[in-house]
Amino acid sequence: MEFENLLTLIKTVSDSELTEFSYEENGSSIHLKKKKETVVVAGNVSDAPVMGFEDTRVAGNTVRKEPDIVQQKSDEPEGQIVKSPLVGTFYAAPSEDAEPFVSVGDQVKKGQTLAIVEAMKLMNEIESDFDGKVAEIYVENGQAVEYGQPLFRIV
């Protein structure tokens, strides 16, 4: 296979969701595999570096990056988690001297305001996606929160 065709093939695999591809021609073979933005090229190819593929090696020396395995906790708390939809500052109440929107043990309905996250001077109401009881509040009033950070556990 010509080098230009090989580069075109690698680019096509990189742009696709392909997870495995094998090709053999005139005694040379190529094996491409993509997992989590990693492309592994193996087979009877030269040691010449290919642009953008530092982990390309000749078969036998193939480096394969497997996705990190996250073990599920068997003691995960029950219920649904309400996560922060944006980065900002968490506020449990509408103003400093007001009561919090919710406390641990309160019953909540889907759509009910649980808190506010301020981002760039905009106050964004955080609503419950679930009916249930507030089992835990994971953050303190005035604390900075990240996107996807757990805020509440509803059971």
TrEMBL record:
Source domain of life: Bacteria
A Pfam match: Biotin_lipoyl
Gene Ontology annotations of biological process type: fatty acid biosynthetic process
Lipid biosynthesis among keywords: yes
Gene Ontology cellular-component terms listed: acetyl-CoA carboxylase complex
InterPro entries documented for this protein: AcCoA_biotinCC, Biotin_BS, Biotin_Carboxyl_Carrier/Decarb, Biotin_lipoyl, Single_hybrid_motif
Pathway as given in its UniProt record: Lipid metabolism; fatty acid biosynthesis
Keyword Lipid metabolism on entry: yes
CDD domains named among the record's database cross-references: biotinyl_domain
Entry GO MF terms: acetyl-CoA carboxylase activity
Keyword vocabulary terms for this entry: Biotin, Fatty acid biosynthesis, Fatty acid metabolism, Lipid biosynthesis, Lipid metabolism
Protein name: Biotin carboxyl carrier protein of acetyl-CoA carboxylase
Annotated organism of origin: Blautia obeum
